[in-house]
Amino acid sequence: MKMLNAAIIGAGAIHRSHVNALRLLPGVTLRALVDTDSVNGLQQAMAYNCRFYPNYREMLLDNDIDVVHICTPHFEHKNMILAALAAGKHVFCEKPVGMNGGEVADIADAAASAPGLLGVCYQNRLNPTSLRIRDELAKNTLGKMLSMKAVLTWSRSGAYYSDSPWRGRFAREGGSLLINQAIHTLDLMQWFAGGVTRLKGVVDSSELAAVTEAEDSAMATLHFANGARGLFYASNCNTLDSPLLLEIHCENGMLQLTDNALWRVTKDQRLKLESDGSPDGSAKSYWGLGHQLAIRQFYHAITHRGQTEYIDIHQAQKSLLMVDAIYRSSLTRQWININN
């Protein structure tokens, strides 16, 4: 089997999760690292014993590179994806794949005719608790889903935005809380319920209004394709990063995710089903362990064409359409229909 050579664009904190995942894959080597900060990028590349490029377009000229990982700010994703696909590379991108529905449509058009695959990292789908929820719902253990509630309360300081001026700007991040922190929760909700048909939501900014032009809090009511109702609330105004609280109410009981543990709750019993592990010290706790599995799935799809377990552009756009819809609903105070 041919050795697959990978390049990573962006040497910020998240890239280490990609490096660690690549090291565990047989037949894969990290060939290059790209970063506009030449001092940090070169230092990291020397530690990895790989090539360093200060410009990603120069890296794309390397015909030996097969796969490009994109770990950069949101506003750079679209152009980097399009350039890498045009260069014949496979692309694995951190979420969000684009900043809005229009960008995703352009990316989808390019991916449809490109020889390489495009995968997007929604690693929380691969948490043990997420996979067990899907399994419980598929088995119809508790009967028909009636509703789903998700509450995400994290903490982001003013320095988080002022130290990285691209954050919290519609032109460079595509928004703030919704498209960065809460998009994983929105993705899980629609994934568990088979999609969202319409929603009504509100965004606002309070504690962080001085440092971001976008929202620091959001709420929405969702109608799912399976007929259930969803309630969503998220904020970056907490004083700590609390674990996601998610409850799925069914005819005969409830699935409850709390403190990174999944419980099946019925009239007679509260049974612990699964727990999420913590990543190693190179990754933030709330990223979970899913990066390794997500990257492994993507490389398996490259070497076994036709395998479809990885998250492609069509799966990745679902949560981004929800983000767009919440913004539009907040402006119009109307229900927004979503075509999944």
UniProtKB/TrEMBL annotation:
It comes from the Bacteria. Gene3D superfamilies: Dihydrodipicolinate Reductase, domain 2, NAD(P)-binding Rossmann-like Domain. Signal peptide: none annotated. InterPro entries: Gfo/Idh/MocA-like_OxRdtase_N, Gfo/Idh/MocA_Oxidoreductase, GFO_IDH_MocA-like_dom, NAD(P)-bd_dom_sf. Coiled coil: none annotated. SUPFAM superfamilies: Glyceraldehyde-3-phosphate dehydrogenase-like, C-terminal domain (SSF55347), NAD(P)-binding Rossmann-fold domains (SSF51735). Residues 5-120 form the Gfo/Idh/MocA-like oxidoreductase N-terminal domain. Pfam families: GFO_IDH_MocA, GFO_IDH_MocA_C3. Residues 132-255 form the GFO/IDH/MocA-like oxidoreductase domain. This is Gfo/Idh/MocA family oxidoreductase.
